[in-house]
Write a structure and sequence with these properties.
The protein is an alpha/beta fold. Helices cover about 40% and strands about 15% of the residues.
Length: about 230
């Protein structure tokens, strides 16, 4: 898939999944604006800008959108990879702070990113938004209610927004990973078989397709990418 001339914004673009998504866009010929929580050092691709942005701060997100507008004048794709996972306690023992933290990390970040970048897409009457949910949004597990609920909110945001903008040239879809093969997940599950998981690169391929012209008639979809897990 070739996306020369396209501009993609990837939140959480320096994480395990976000880095693979940004790389996939770069390989397709697109320009990428990737967000990170703090400035990073290292090699930067000529078509890649890494911006330190507070995804939970409204003004910071509006500033990101203005930066994209000034530099590129368009936004063709928004992929929300930022998020967080925490589990282990049942509802009766779960602190309110944990509930709020996971809703913020997973749902609020996606909402603020969509709200900030969507106007630029609507102006051009083109664009693709991909939100990253989780298998547990549909198949929750004991001890993971706040995480499951936060990812269910991401699914609802994607499907509702798809209806809202379906006649304005913008597609919105949601992808659901089960377990992604990252160093963090391997460390957290040392007895698991990571060959059954999906690699970040494989997951990124699905996201890239959803942002390509080949998927222009696909919107409001909730797509499982579970591998064999």
């Amino acid at each position: 898939m070739r996306l020369e001339g396209h501009v993609a914004v990837v939140t959480g673009g320096t994480g395990g999944l976000g880095r693979a998504v940004a790389s996939a866009f770069l390989a397709s010929g697109a320009r990428v604006v990737a967000t990170t929580r703090r400035p990073v050092d290292g090699e930067v691709h000529e078509r890649l800008a890494i911006e330190a942005v507070d995804l939970l701060d409204e003004e910071s997100m509006l500033g990101l959108a203005e930066l994209v507008r000034e530099r590129h004048g368009r936004c063709d794709a928004l992929v929300c990879c930022a998020g967080g996972f925490e589990a282990g306690t049942r509802v009766a023992e779960t602190p309110l702070a944990t509930w709020r933290r996971l809703l913020d990390l997973n749902a609020t970040t996606a909402f603020l990113a969509c709200r900030a970048l969507l106007p630029l897409m609507l102006e051009g009457r083109r664009g693709s938004i991909v939100l990253v949910g989780a298998k547990t949004a549909l198949h929750p597990f004991p001890g993971g209610v706040p995480y499951s609920a936060s990812k269910s909110a991401v699914v609802a945001l994607a499907t509702a927004l798809a209806v809202e903008v379906r006649d304005q040239g913008v597609n919105v879809n949601c992808v659901l990973p089960s377990v992604i093969d990252t160093p963090a997940n391997r460390a957290a599950s040392p007895d698991a078989d990571p060959s059954r998981w999906v690699t970040p690169e494989e997951f990124a391929e699905t996201i890239l397709w959803l942002c390509s012209p080949a998927a222009r008639e696909t919107s409001g979809a909730v797509i499982p990418v579970y591998g064999r897990s």
